[in-house]
Specification:
Blueprint (H helix, E strand, L loop, with lengths): L1 H24 L12 H34 L29 H29 L10 E7 L2 E7 L10 E4 L1 E5 L4 E7 L4 E4 L6 E4 L5 E5 L5 E6 L12 E7 L1 H11 L13 H10 L22 H5 L5 H7 L17 E2 L4 E2 L9 H9 L1 H4 L18 H12 L3
Parallel strand pairs: 1-5, 4-10
Antiparallel strand pairs: 1-2, 2-3, 5-8, 6-7, 9-10, 11-12
The protein binds dinuclear copper ion.
Length: 399
């Protein structure tokens, strides 16, 4: 009796755990059950139908197994001295069916038919996933995966053979309601781009450019996660898609097209800018400041690095030098950094400076990476606390 109570307790704990987990799923940003765009809704609808069909079959099959095991189980004889009416002995079997043509054809054809129907609907949805409805806006966004963050290159005229108009990282900003065509690529290993509330997954493969599309029904921030194992910080390779109303999106584009200002002595952030040029410009571009136009001493022209997107290989060889780290021209216009692993702002909307300083000082201690292998940002332990403050002061000017 005691052990029964114990197992009941365990069962109750298990049920409670499962229910709590199920309840918690409602708040998870990576749910596929709460679609916010047409593409994700198509996947969701398909999955629910397949789940329903599979559920009916599961109940039928399990029901028949339970029925058979009860109905035909070996029973003890009612009278031990007698042959058992109502039961079978261990060496006795109920009537066996073999070679029943109708049954055998039936249980072969029916599953084949069910799977064929599921396949037809699945293939239709697969073809719809990267189908782009023309919106009149020629925008194409190149999505570039790199250990362990995402870059987004905006071609406002849709021409990916010319340098992008806007380069940003970790947060893809787009207008609501229309299909945004993407070209998913990688600079190093295979990643996979996935915003579960907006569409399925698309692999980012070095040397290839995979078409994909995002569409959101409503404004909002939609979280994503790299979904192809890509090394040490794969689990921390996140990203957001930010859907804005058409007017907000146009305002965002207008802001992003403006280069950063060259600061002069006496300006707030000037010391930080000089430190940035000396320490950070080897990898990070700030348009107007650390590209060739802005800072001749740096010798890097961001446009050189972006030309020839069709030849991804060319850019791959350029990777992990300048142009292969997040473009910081409008750093403060994003809400996350370091592969969307850290929030730039706290709940009150203030810049989380302590975290940002810790990241600049010693990135490998904040998020696993391999700077010795040119994977991720290295530490700058040479920076004094004053210099760290100055650099973050400067980053704060990058609106
Ligand atoms: Cu990138 Cu996993």
């Amino acid at each position: 009796m005691k052990s029964l109570a114990g197992s009941r307790g365990r069962l109750a704990t298990l049920v409670a755990t499962v229910m709590l987990s199920a309840a918690a799923c409602g708040d998870k940003p990576l749910t596929t059950m709460d679609s916010a765009g047409e593409k994700a809704a198509q996947i969701n609808d398909l999955a629910l139908w397949v789940f329903a069909i599979a559920g009916v079959i599961f109940v039928l099959v399990q029901g028949m197994i339970l029925y058979s095991s009860k109905r035909f189980r070996v029973k003890p004889p009612e009278d031990p001295d007698q042959e058992r009416p109502g039961g079978y002995s261990d060496d006795e079997f109920p009537e066996q069916i073999h070679g029943n043509d109708v049954l055998e054809w039936g249980w072969t054809a029916l599953p084949a038919l069910i799977l064929a129907v599921v396949a037809v609907f699945t293939v239709v949805v697969i073809f719809e996933q990267d189908d782009v409805q023309a919106s009149g806006d020629p925008l194409v966004v190149e999505v570039v995966g790199q250990q362990w963050w995402w870059e987004f290159q905006y071609h406002l005229d849709g021409n990916t053979d010319t340098p992008p108009d806007i380069v940003t990282a970790n947060e893809l900003v787009m207008p609501v309601g229309v299909d945004i065509p993407l070209r998913v690529q990688s600079r190093d290993v295979i990643h996979s781009y996935w915003i579960p509330r907006l569409n399925g997954k698309r692999d980012a493969v070095p040397g290839r450019s995979h078409p994909w599309v995002l569409q959101a029904n409503e404004p909002g921030r939609f979280m994503g996660q790299c979904t192809e194992f890509c090394g040490l910080s794969h689990a921390y390779m996140r990203m957001f898609t930010v859907a804005l109303s058409q007017a907000d999106y146009e305002a965002w584009v207008a802001e992003q097209l403006v280069d950063a200002e060259q600061l002069s002595e006496g300006d707030v952030g000037y010391e930080g800018q000089q430190l940035f040029i000396a320490q950070c410009a080897e990898c990070h571009i700030i348009e107007g400041v650390t590209d060739r136009d802005g800072d001749p001493s740096n010798g890097v022209d961001s446009t050189d690095l972006y030309v020839g997107t069709a030849g991804v290989d060319e850019r791959y060889t350029d990777s992990l030098t300048a142009g292969a780290a997040p473009n910081l021209t409008h750093f403060m216009s994003r809400e996350t950094y370091a592969g969307s692993f850290f929030d730039l702002y706290d709940e009150d909307g203030n810049v989380n400076r302590a975290q940002l300083e810790a990241w600049v000082l010693n990135a490998p201690a904040e998020k696993p990476n391999r700077p010795d292998n040119l994977q991720g940002m290295r530490a700058f332990l040479n920076l004094t606390p004053d210099q760290l403050e100055q650099i973050v002061d400067y980053l704060e000017t990058l609106q």
